[in-house]
Amino acid sequence: ENHRGTSTLVVARLGGERGVEDARVLVPSARFEQAFTPRYSPDGRRVAYSAWTAGGFRDVRIVDVATGAFREIAHDRAEDWEPSWSPDGKTVFFASDRAFGIPNVFAFDVEDAKLWQVTNVCTGAMQPEVSPDGRTLMTGSWDQTVRLWDVATGLERANYNWNIGRVYCVTYAPDGLRLAAGGDLGRVVVW
After folding, report:
1. 0.70 exceeded by the pTM?
2. What are 71's strand-pairing partners?
3. Are the C-beta atoms of residues 105 and 139 closer than 8 Å to each other?
4. Closest C-alpha among 162, 133, 129, 164 to residue 148
5. CA distance linking residue 137 with residue 129, whole number of Å
6. How far apart are CA 61 and CA 51, in angstroms?
């Protein structure tokens, strides 16, 4: 929902004449607040999303779908965006510039509230996406690369550049056997 510069996180059920039923505001937004990149947890009980709020804060929130209660992973001057859940729903991965102003991927343990840095790439790592088996993290970057990381060790497994431009989206097929990435040159590669 967007009203004059304010966007609000809304949830709904697919179906009905209009294609959407039971739409409701999940988290109300103050004037000019923005909600971005919502992602359901694997069990569908929570949504992680990035929110711009008063004072220029951009933080990742985790909201309970049933109650609308939310908590922020951190409320600080770092910009946090593009949350993505681990397949078991225990960890939220997200991009952040909290390390020297360079975007990299961080992880947040939902139960223990532990936060740690996953990647350390001087050209940035963003768009975190975890493989269906939970073992590999895929990231895109402004340096036009797609990287695969071992989730357990944080070590880089592979690095690809297909001349698709700055990589703005990455995803796995549900079976985890195919991957796709898209860049700002309007190209998508599937492998």
Report:
1. yes
2. 62
3. yes
4. 129
5. 6
6. 7
pLDDT digits (tens, 9 = 90+) for 61-105: 999 999 999 999 999 999 999 999 999 999 999 999 999 999 999
Query: What's the rounded Cα separation, in Å, for the pair 59 and 183?
Result: 25
Q: What is the per-residue pLDDT across 16-68, written as a single tens digit (0 to 9) for each?
A: 777 888 888 988 888 888 999 999 999 999 999 999 998 889 999 999 999 99
80 vs 94: CA distance, rounded Å: 7
73 DSSP 8-state letter: S
| pLDDT, mean over the chain | 93
Q: Sort strands 146-150 and 156-160 into parallel, antiparallel or unpaired.
A: antiparallel
**Residue 141 is encoded by which pair of tokens?**
């970057």
- Which strands, in side-by-side order, build the sheet including 179-183? 167-172, 179-183, 188-190
Cα separation of 83 and 29, whole Å? 19
The H or E element spanning position 104 is strand 102-109
